[in-house]
Write a structure and sequence with these properties.
The chain has 9 helices and 3 strands. By secondary structure, it is mostly helical. It folds into 2 domains: about 70 residues, Orthogonal Bundle (Helix Hairpins); about 110 residues, 3-Layer(bab) Sandwich (minor pseudopilin epsh fold). Helix 1 runs antiparallel to helix 4. The longest helix has 22 residues. The radius of gyration is 17 Å and the shape is globular. It starts with about 25 loop residues before the first helix and ends with a helix.
Length: about 210
């Protein structure tokens, strides 16, 4: 084994920073148990593959089909869980309002017809997921538009060539302690803790990548 193992990223805020929308106990278990578990299992799967340990997680997820078959599923599930959660934590912050004049704000209004339409579509997509999965706002390099999509389990839009800008975890462990089976209430609460500045940065980076 090498020292180039994947690590659990620390949160940039306290567990209770998102109260009352996401409770501290959920954040603690979600980060310290669930995310940490994905990282541990990913490292275990790759412990005999020093070359893969040196790749960043985005590269591994983008190139799943090129990985050795005996580690592909583990990287898809646990590597995907690591990548998705690493992005999710950075997108959460209270008191950051949607800015219609920002780059991503203009794109959302242009491609969806307005913020409320976007919000409704994202909510409906999240509610329509059967079982566990994620909802995403992505940038599509092919048509240069922002779109809403969903993935099952810990899959990531990168495998389909789309660039994630915003994500919502709708696995039950993300909300069940506070909201029980009321996924709709959790989804509504999520809109109060979106760090739109971070989403805008993700959009700007996606556009720069498109323009290279």
């Amino acid at each position: 084994m090498t020292n180039n193992l994947f690590e659990l990223p620390p949160l940039d805020y306290e567990f209770d920073a998102l109260e009352p929308f996401i409770d501290a106990r959920t954040m603690e278990i979600h980060h310290d148990k669930h995310h940490a578990g994905y990282v541990k299992k990913l490292n275990t799967a790759l412990e005999n593959y020093n070359d893969l340990q040196k790749k960043d997680i985005q590269h591994l997820i983008k190139n799943l089909n090129n990985l050795p078959e005996n580690v592909r599923i583990a990287v898809r599930n646990n590597g995907g869980g690591h990548l998705n959660h690493s992005m999710f934590w950075k997108l959460l912050k209270k008191n950051v309002k949607f800015d219609a004049k920002s780059e991503v704000g203009k794109a959302i209004i242009k491609d969806f017809g307005g913020y409320e339409i976007f919000k409704t579509k994202l909510s409906e997509t999240a509610m329509s997921i059967f079982g566990s999965g994620w909802v995403w706002l992505v940038f599509n390099p092919e048509n240069k538009k922002v779109e809403i999509t969903s993935t099952p389990n810990q899959d990531n839009p990168l495998t389909k060539g789309k660039i994630p800008l915003l994500c919502l975890d709708v696995w039950e462990h993300a909300y069940y302690l506070k909201y029980q089976n009321k996924r709709d209430e959790y989804i509504e609460a999520f809109f109060n803790v979106i760090d739109w500045q971070n989403v805008n940065e993700n959009y700007s980076q996606a556009k720069r990548g498109e323009n290279k």
